[in-house]
Amino acid sequence: MSSETESFTGPAEIHSFAGLLFDMDGTLIDSTDAIVKHWHKLGKELGVDPQVILATSHGRRSIDTLRVYDPAKANWEYVRHVEGLIPREYGADAVEIPGARELLGALEAANVPWAIVTSGTRPLMDGWLEVMKLASPKHNVVAEDVADGKPHPACYQLGKARLGLGPGDRALVIEDAPAGVRAGKAAGCWVVGLATTHRLEQIREAGADWIVKDLRSVSFVGRDAVTGLVQIELCNTLVM
Q1: Catalytic center residues
Q2: Using one digit for the tens of pLDDT, what is the confidence trace for 139-156?
Q3: Which one of 37, 93, 185, 186 is most buried, by most CB atoms within 10 A?
Q4: Strands 190-194 and 210-212, how do they pair?
Q5: What is the pTM of this model?
Q6: What whole-number distance in Å separates Cα of residue 228 and Cα of residue 186?
Q7: Euclidean distance between CA atoms 39 and 76, whole angstroms
Q8: Of the candidates 119, 115, 99, which has an alpha carbon nearest to the alpha carbon of residue 182?
């Protein structure tokens, strides 16, 4: 989350990437109110203070959180079921991150390689994309696809692979959570951190290459007809 004392006045820069990888919650949509209600409901079932769960749950897979509080419920059948209910029960509580619809629409129109890499399950991701009516990528990585969640780099490594990118190809990760920023950096990606859900010092310490307020500072410029590289403009970045 940004502060009035911080300076988001960095000049516009254009960078080239072979593909883009987006986190979901806090990056494309803000479902904070829905997730709070979800964990309050589950907290009562688990007999755990929801605030204790919420203190560390953002950016983590639910299955990893449940392993701490009730290992018996830490299975994909249960997690997929309860997460699939969230968009249906609390869909009205979510909003899109400013700039998300325009950016994804531009990437889709230009057939740019992009994917969603989320700590949520497939029912949760599909449910939010349907409720929010956002562009749906051809490729994605969900919680069930990897053995270890963020900050482990496996999810972003798999995301790059699903876009057909090699270890030497420049990929841009867009994230809001420190765990996701660390995962992107550990996967060898460049990372834009969004100041939408966490304190700036947390995003900074996680290693984000740039920090912006929201996706209005990230724009698609074009795609090189020969190399296929995608030109992305970053503006109003945090002056570090």
Answers
A1: 23, 25
A2: 999 999 999 999 999 999
A3: 185
A4: parallel
A5: 0.92
A6: 25
A7: 17
A8: 119
